[in-house]
Structure formats: C-alpha cells, structure tokens
Amino acid sequence: MDILEYSAVELSAAIREGKVTATDAVEAVLARIDAREKDINAYVTVDREQALRAAASVQEKIEKGELTGPLAGVPVAVKDNMCTEGMLTTCSSKILENFVPTFTSEAVVNLERAGAVIIGKTNMDEFAMGSTTETSAYGVTRNPWNTAHVPGGSSGGSAAAVAAGECFFALGSDTGGSIRQPASFCGVVGLKPTYGTVSRYGLIAYGSSLDQIGPLTKNVTDCAAVLELIASHDTKDSTSVRREDTDFTSALVDDVRGMKIGIPRDYLGDGLDAEVKEAVLAAAKVLEEKGAVVEEFDLSLVEYAIPAYYTIAAAEASSNLERFDGVKYGYRTSSYEGLHNMYKKTRSEGFGAEVKRRIMLGSFVLSSGYYDAYYLKALKVKAMIKKAFDDAFARYDLILGPVAPTTAPRLGESLSDPLKMYLGDIYTISVNLAGLPGISVPCGKDTKGLPIGLQMIADSFQEKKLIQAAYTYEKTKRGCGKWQSNMRQ
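Request: output the structure for the sequence above.
Response:
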C-alpha cells in the first residue's frame, strides 16, 4: 500500500507495527510536495531538515514504547497563523515576512508531545481575512481537484495540503467558517470545535471572540483523534475551558437511531446552488434511512448574521492588528520621517488590500458616534442568534445544512466583488457568533467534479454528537470511511 493512501490513524498504527517508519512517511510527503507544490502552493514554509530530524527522534521513541498514541510519527501541516518556535510564522502577510517566534502555540505543542511531525506552515488568506486563499502575500493556493479554482479560505493551504496528499492532516483556524468552507471545497473533513475547547495561545488573533483552532483531515476517525489531542485547558488562554469529555474517539459509533436532526428552511432558499442543495438533502436522506428523525424548521435571524459578524470581526481585527507597527517585530519601511510616518508607511506597505479594508471598517464601527449604532447593535444581534440556536437545540440534537452556497469558484471571481465573497459565509458564520461546534463532511461532487460539503452543527460541547453522525454518514456513503484520493498523480 502506498504510504500516502493511509489515513493518519492508519499510518501511526503501521509505524507502531513496524511496517513503515516515521522517516518513510516524512520522505513520502516531501516527495509529494516536490511533485505537486508548484501547482498547488499550499505551503509558505517547508522545513525539511527539522521534519526529518523530528521523524528520526519520534521513531526512536516509538520503538522504545515511549510514544504509543494514535498520531505518533504522522506528518502534519500547520496554518501559518500559529506560532512555531524557530520557524517562520507570517500570517501570509508581508508585514510578518521575517517573524520567527520564540515560542510555540499550545495546540501545536500538544501535537508535538504526541509525536506528530511538523512538516511546515500552510498558506492562508492574509491574517485569515478572506474566503479563497487569494489574499496571501505569497501567492494564491489552488484547489487540488481543479487548479483553476480556489481551495476556499482562510485555511485553504491546510485543506489543499490534505487533499493533495502533501500531509496526513493539518491544523486550521475558524473565525467565520475558515476550516469548514475550505474542507468543503477540497473534499476533506474539517471541524470547528466549541469556542474555548482548543487553546488560542500562540494563535495570531483576527477576531478574538470568534477564532478557534481545529483539524482538517482525510476522514472522521482522524478528525476525532486530532481533536482529542489538541483539546486541553490552558491557563495561558483566559478563554480556555476545562472539559472532562474530550475522549472524542469514543463517539466513532455507526448509529444515529433516534437522533433528531433539523434542517433550517432558511438554508435552502435563494442563492443556494441546485446541485449543492440536492447533495445535502440526499445526505439527510441517508441519515434518515439509518434511523435519524429529520425535519425542516425555521431558524430565525439568518439574514442578520453576516452584517453582525463582519461588524464584530472587523472591530476586533482593528484592535488586534494595531500591534503590527514596525517597532517590535516584522517588516519596517526602509525610509521614513519620524515615528508616526514610520507607522503609516510600514502599515501601508505591509498590509494587503483586504486587511486594510477590514481595519478601516473596524475602526469606523468603534469610533465615537458610531459605536452604539453599529458595534453595540451587532453584539445584541449576536446574543439573539445564540438564543435562536438555544431554542433549536431544545428540539434537535443536530442542525444540518450546506457549508457554502456553491462549490469552489474559479480563481479571481471572488476578489473582484468582496461583498459577494462575504455573502458566501452565510451558512458558517452563525456557528462562530454562537460559539458552537460544526463539522464539514464530503457529500458528493457537482457536474464539474468539484467537492460538495455537508455541514452539521451541534450545541455547545456536543462535538461527540457531531462526530457520531458524521462517522455514521461516512461509513454509509464512503466505503467504511476509507479516504479516496482524487489526485491526478
């Protein structure tokens, strides 16, 4: 069996059984990167020497019985907004083009402790602001299924790397759908956990009340295994939650009998591509045939989610990004007159257009005279959206719907119309506003051969229900969850 056809959990088992080594796995991934990266551009940084050194060290510990976990020896890619000690961390922005952190984000530390091997850092929309991975200062990432199309964003590099076999799993971050939407576009599994489940320490912030780290994987089993490792209480993150129910792999059960699933009518209306709608409803039918109770219902306030989200996220971004001023780290303009001119020129030259747009929007809604009219009102809408979900979860175990209105658009289509790009987040952003967990699972392809994702949403801290339903669907639909590589080698 080709090493790259293993899932992450299968690979680790094969390493423990002596069928392959961690070094074999890293070398196979590096060879795939050499073969595909010029077409995909999933990575900003690939650290070959460090990855091979780490693989050799991990292999030794596995052979001694010191590392026995389900991901020991497995190569992983990390989104380039998570700090990694000694490795370039750019947020795909010119303003951090030379930033090498002196510490590592907690989620990555958890993976390294478990024996996962960091291959490198993946491309993303600059500072996670975008839905296509086209706003990166290091070039666009392309969808492995069709390189004329985007991989989604902002975690597009991570999703594309998994889909192209350039790693076995990856970490992404999700502020308004940035794990689930690229997972949908690239035909992989992506999960955004309940807010506070995974430490945000070391994650370079976009919207602090919305950001959450999560896995992008080949199948649901890998997803549960990764989430189990990265979920932890962290005193360094004041929003981190202490949970006792993080044995997520225990939810890998092929059974949804009696589970109540609601489909919001609001998610099936105008703007939803007919092929996406058909695939999502077919997936709902599969779950119904497996014993779930599926019905449509009205989920209010959907039309207010986008304006509320972009008001809150932009406001938080304008505050979070003011630290990038050319003084302490990162890019600094080469010629300037005085401190304020240095700030101005550094930011003008260092930030891209989409980041500047959101900083200006955020500064506007927080400014005197507009704070109450926009930002405060958006916070009230956020609370109302959370209440609407609370009411829904009093009746249903899960909410089911599409991840995005369409499959992956062609490169260049979204950037010409930012508002259209924002509207593409209609089905994902409410999950972040309410702090809920959500998962994207492949549920078919359109007539162009592009993947379609099925989104399932659960109440806070109910990831196990998500995993169980997703696993049941995957076992039924995809041949016992076996990952099928699309790749034209």
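The chain has a mean pLDDT of 95.
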